Amino acid sequence: MEKNGKIYVAPPKDGSDFKELFKQLAAVGAGRQVGADGFPQGPWTPELLAEAITQIDSNRAGIDLRTVQLWFQENDKGISPSNIAWLARIFGCDDKGATSEWLLELNAGQSRLVAKRRDLRKTATGTTLPDIDQPVAVGRQTLATDEPEEWSQASPRERRFKLALRSEGLFASGSPLNLPALTFAGASALGFMSYIVGIHSVTYTRSDGISKQVGFLWAPNWTILFLVLLPLFFWLVIELLLFWKGDARFSLLAQAARYEADAPWSRNIESYSHSYWAVFVICVLFAGVLQWIGVCLVPLLEGSDDYATSWGTIAIMQPDLISAPMEIAFTGLAYLYMCLCFYLFFAGLILLHTIIDDFGRIEERLMLRLGGNHRAENGQIRLKVMRGVFRCTIVGILVAICMKVQSAYLSSDGVDIVTWILHDFVSVVYRDHQSAGNFGYRMPTHFSSLLVAISACVIFLYGSIRLNVGSRFREALWKMSAVEALLFATYLLIDAFDGFSILLIAGVLAATYGLFDPEFALPRSRKSESNHGVS
Questions:
Q1: Hey, which end of the chain has fewer CB within 10 Å, N or C?
Q2: DSSP bridge pairs for 40
């Protein structure tokens, strides 16, 4: 039966206890969305059910995955009254009448489970023991019946903040537009603040007589990067992550005859915990705090010019435009926003690696169980994951290109960044055109952008090897690899020779087309491919 677009199963009212009821409903996927073909999507898994309960609007506290896992296990744990209400909402398919019926049925099933296990303990011991399925009061605290035992007895060290799960939650929870919208909003706020303090458009004269535009809104690594590229990157990662968790992974695990409890996604995320913490420390401490101190704070306090003057240090050259304390406050806020965004960027790359590795592990299980017969069935999933990885990584390299272009411009003779690029383009067309010169500044952004570009390329290389798209799509993979190589070469050769802008424009155009058509296939070939299916 279908209710509100979900699979609805009426309460059996056959005297089953909670464990029996839950086992039956989880197996048929009661409360799950009906598939596009009108058939059930499959049974509940601990992770899917925990996510569904957490997404209930009125459930602000959410639910711990380990609590849900206890419901699936054969143990002495029942379910707490508060969680019965959420479970009734799920099984009732958000229908008030059906939810009320299931609330009564689940409460009755819990009572039957309590009575049954009380009788078993009486039979075994001959005495009446405290009921472990009822809440046990301890002072002013109450331990829920379905709270994981290992959690209630965990030490403070074991209850530490789980950065990996929280970071994945930022991508996987809520609407796919939440994180991109927050990134866009933060960049927009910085843009408005730069306009208010007067550094949105600033021209200063360098010691060699060159006038340069160094306004905040003229810097692509603070405008295009945070307003366009990073929101796009986050959206692409989220779309791929939701596809993998919601459809692809479940489909592969069903073929492997494995339940999610045997290979939980949360365990895969937690296995990367050290990577998340390492990236967090590098982005916040080094790329954020220490870089801000070295590039902005110390020069503003001492009036030094070891680094190229930008909107962040313009107070040194034009103290009448903005005061040093105001500049310090604004740059501190901007660098805090920047380092948090780049942490999320690298967290997105880690998630891509996790998806690729998870796919590879499941494929190995399928190979042991089904041999090579599974590859034809999973070709569409494999190709879609590879497309997503390609899109994300080319955006990642474009982020690095934005960073290096701005850094190279600040040390050049260009009046503004647009004129500088056009000047380089014209220098190839007209032989007698004077080549641009450079001023000797230290440029730490060159190093940080190199890390970004290499990280993106490594993820693509790992995906192209691990996913093994097969001979039919080998040509598409070669095209993707060629675009990645072109973009990386473009990054390396920025400001390396006269005419680098031609390569830059070619790389950006190829990457833009790749976002819409990752396989670089003609419309006719794509249509033919869809008609013959995917192998």
A1: N
A2: 34
For residue 486, CA distances in Å to 58, 398, 480, 509 come to 49, 11, 10, 11
- Banded pLDDT at 467 (limits 50, 70, 90): confident
* 42-97 per-position pLDDT tens digit: 788 888 888 888 888 776 667 877 788 788 877 767 787 778 887 888 888 888 88
The secondary structure element, H or E, covering residue 339 is: helix 324-370
| Helix locations, 74-177, DSSP H | 81-91, 96-125, 149-152, 163-172
Contact at 8 Å (CB) between 437 and 414? no
pLDDT above 70 coverage of the chain, percent:
81
pTM of the model: 0.71
Helix (H, G, I), strand (E, B) or coil at 61: coil
Task: Give the residues across from 143 on adjacent strands.
Answer: 136
Q: What is the pLDDT of residues 512-527, one digit of tens each?
A: 999 999 988 755 444 4
Pairing of strands 211-213, 203-205: antiparallel
- Give ∠ CA 30-31-34 in degrees, rounded to 5: 95
**Spatial CB neighbours of 252, under 8 Å, sequence gap ≥ 6:** 359, 362, 363, 366, 378, 381
| SS3 track for 161-222 | CCHHHHHHHHHHCCCCCHHHHHHHHHHHHHHHHHHHHCCCCCEEECCCCCEEECCHHHCCCC
CB atoms within 10 A of CB 226: 24
Element (H, E) at 3: strand 2-3
**What 3-state class would DSSP assign to 120?**
helix
Q: How many helices (H) and strands (E) does the chain have?
A: 24, 6
Tokens of residue 160, six digits: 């530490």
CA pair distance 342, 329, nearest whole angstrom: 20
Residue 518, SS3 per DSSP:
coil
Q: Between 129 and 380, where is the model more confident?
A: 380
Residues belonging to the chain: 535
Q: Which of 29, 53, 32, 25 is nearest to 43 (CA)?
A: 29
- Locus of tokens 């313009």: 314
Cα separation values, 466 from 67, 173, 232, 438, 454, Å: 34, 27, 25, 43, 18
Burial zone of 125 (CB within 10 Å; 0-12 exposed, 13-18 middle, 19+ buried): exposed
3-state secondary structure of 2: strand
Angle at 498 between CA 497 and CA 504, to 5 degrees: 80
